[in-house]
Write a structure and sequence with these properties.
flat, single chain, two-stranded parallel ribbon, mainly alpha
């Protein structure tokens, strides 16, 4: 099997997990499904193809809090928007 997966395979697998969770094995709590993707030979500081912002359609939790972990530029931007922030050195 190759290490690369197609978009269709990813969507089919995610749908299978959700179908199993909703129909076959019902639980009495909210279940979280996490997906972790590892990119080989990718340097995020050099290559900016995958950087960006995603705006969620729905707020996941009404009282959701965040703290930005980043360099000085990101921390300054977060503090300007009244968001708690920490540098790696903190």
């Amino acid at each position: 099997m190759s290490s690369k997966i197609t978009r269709d395979m990813l969507m089919e697998t995610a749908n299978n997990v959700l179908t199993y969770s909703n129909e076959t094995k019902k639980r009495k709590f909210v279940e979280t499904v996490e997906l972790q993707i590892v990119l080989k030979n990718f340097d995020p500081s050099r290559d900016k193809r995958f950087s960006g912002t995603v705006r969620l359609r729905y707020i996941p939790k009404p009282k959701f809090t965040v703290c930005v972990l980043g360099d000085e530029r990101h921390c300054d931007e977060a503090r300007a928007n009244n968001i708690p922030a920490m540098t790696v050195d903190d």
